[in-house]
Amino acid sequence: MLTTNNIIILAAIALYMIMMVVIGAVVSKRNKTASDYYLGGRKLGPLVTAMSAEASDMSGWLLMGLPAVAMMGGLAEAFWTAVGLAIGTYINWLVVAKRLRKYSAKIDAFTIPDFFAKRFGDKSRVLVTVSALLIIVFFIPYTASGFAACGKLFTSLFGMNYMTAMIISAAVIVIYCTLGGFFAASTTDFVQSIVMTIALFVVIGFGEGTVHGFGNVFENVKGLSGYLDIFKGFNVSTGETGSYGALPVASTLAWGLGYFGMPHILLRFMAIEDENKLKLSRRVASVWVTISMGIAVLIGVIGYSLMKNGIIPAYADATTAETIIVDISKVISKFGFVPAFVGGVILAGILASTMSTADSQLLAAASSVSENLVKETFGIKMSQKTSMILARVSVIAISVVAIFIAKNPNSSVFRIVSFAWAGFGAAFGPVILCALFWKRTNKYGAIAGMLSGGIMVFVWKFIVRVQFADTILNIYELLPAFIVALVAIIVVSLLTKAPEKEITDVYEEIKNA
User: Fold this and answer.
1) Which DSSP symbol is given to 241?
2) Residues 480, 426: contact at Cβ < 8 Å?
3) How do residues 146-171 score in pLDDT, each as one tens digit?
């Protein structure tokens, strides 16, 4: 039975979800072509570009995964992950954003596979096919994990049936995506980033106040040897002190390399209305990411004090601890009607973090199906109206597959995100960098880089790390896979025919612009 407080929480969440659908309906009138639907007609403002990119990047990982890792494992892994991501964010905006905006506009590319094909003059469409399939392979499970997170949220709060809760959440995302496309996703992501920020500050304020100051927060963990040591860490579940040497630090910092290959972030660079406004976007994005991740890590440390004092449940491990902010919001909601509404806003923040990533992933995966596979690989010609219908049908179809995959709600958000992040970072990151900054790169090198990077992520994750779990080879799969892909691009490009003059002329024009 729903209590009055639960009804207030549900009302806050419902208000938020209705607002997202309304935004989708309002901006749907802007979509006249597939380019409008998938890239917003390159009309994003600098603030929307910055905040939508980072909101779609952070996902439920920010409000669920990262605090749980810090809470149950100490500062080491969470700290170096956050540092790597902060550095990667800044460098990506500084180095990649402007040149990718210029290049994609010059060659009229509005999806990542389309950019690769036109940049390397691949008329065989092999690059389009390979990159589109990689996007689908890594994005559908990633999207499914977002749907699952929404389902678990409502199940834990209201005792709803998991599948019912997940389908309702997915339906809201699908509705505003199919209506408004990229511009709707970007606009809602901007709103969602604000809701996420409010949720972070409310939770940290409540947690700090409940344990009577940060002094008590750190006093509670001082007795855990290595918990606050960024080169050790402490496993709360087992009571064991860890060791974070140079190689583990390097592999964790490698999270930052993933940014160079994230399709949903790269599309924001391509979509900004004015490339000269990217400097403002870079500053806003870098500051927000650094502050939000710092707060998320601190919430994890505060969470240990709350758990120790019986204010929130005792968690068995980092996976079960991913409900930490949900449990804190439940405590807040018990203090009255206004706090219950605040608790609803916090939970809307979790929902926002999940939805902001799922919508971007849906559009990227749908563009790979409708634009890259159907129209380009299979050469099916269609009108703009038919293309728009196909785009919307693709979003719905991919959502149905993601819902089916998400039937199991027990996977770790942090671990799923880390695997998909490695996949995109290794498969696309080196290719993007070489495409933008090395004239000699050719289509054969690009294909070799994508395939070797994507395959190595699977090999390292499921074979090397399993067989050598207790050795120095047990490192984050993104680092070795990124290196392998980069080497493959360079070697294969040098061993095969140089790019045609018309391709290198465009490169030089962009370089000197």
Assistant:
1) E
2) no
3) 777 777 777 777 777 888 888 887 88
Low-confidence ranges of the chain (pLDDT < 50): none
Query: The tokens 């409010």 sit on which residue?
Result: 198
Q: What is the CA radius of gyration of the chain?
A: 22
**Which secondary-structure segment (H or E) carries 173?**
helix 162-210
At residue 156, the 3 state secondary structure works out as helix
Residue type, 307: M
Is residue 271 a contact partner of residue 189, using CB atoms and an 8 Å limit?
no
- Rounded Cα distance between 384 and 101, Å, is 24
* Residue 385 pLDDT: 72
- Residue 278: both structure tokens together: 């990217």
The dihedral through the CA atoms of 306, 308, 312, 318 has a sign that is: positive
Helix (H, G, I), strand (E, B) or coil at 247: helix
CA 79 distance to own-chain centroid: 18
First to last CA, the chain: 64
Q: List the structure tokens of 218.
A: 């750190």
* Pairwise CA distance, residues 301 & 318, whole Å: 13
Name the burial class of residue 126, with classes exposed (0-12), middle (13-18) and buried (19+) by CB atoms within 10 angstroms of its CB: middle
Task: Report in angstroms the alpha-carbon separations of 336 from 206, 307, 330, 341, 372.
Answer: 14, 22, 11, 9, 52
Q: What is the pLDDT of residue 425?
A: 94
Q: What is the DSSP string of 138-163?
A: HHHHHHHHHHHHHHHHHHHHH---HH
Number of neighbours of residue 474 by Cβ within 10 angstroms: 16
Residues 6+ apart with CB under 8 A from 330: 157, 343
Tell me, what amino acid is at 153?
L
CA dihedral (108, 111, 112, 118) positive or negative: negative
Residues 31 and 176: their CA atoms lie apart, in Å, by 13
Q: Give yes or no for a contact between 280 and 50, defined as CB atoms under 8 angstroms apart.
A: yes
DSSP string, 270-304: HHBS-GGGHHHHHHHHHHHHHHHHHHHHHHHHHHH
Q: 502 is written with which tokens?
A: 């018309």
| Separation of CA 427 from chain center | 16
Q: What is the pLDDT of residues 84-108, one digit of tens each?
A: 999 999 999 999 999 999 999 899 8
Among residues 83, 68, 322, 54, the alpha carbon closest in space to that of 197 is found at 54
CA distance 399 to 173: 9
| 316 φ/ψ angles, rounded to the nearest 5 degrees | -80, -35
Supply the DSSP symbol for 500: P
- Apex 94 CA angle, 128 and 115, nearest 5: 15
Sign of the C-alpha dihedral computed for residues 446, 106, 181 and 417 taken in this order: positive
What pLDDT score was predicted for residue 406?
Answer: 76
Distance, in Å, from the CA atom of 198 to the CA atom of 72, rounded to the nearest integer, reads: 24
β-partners of residue 272 are: 44
Residues β-bridged to residue 181: none
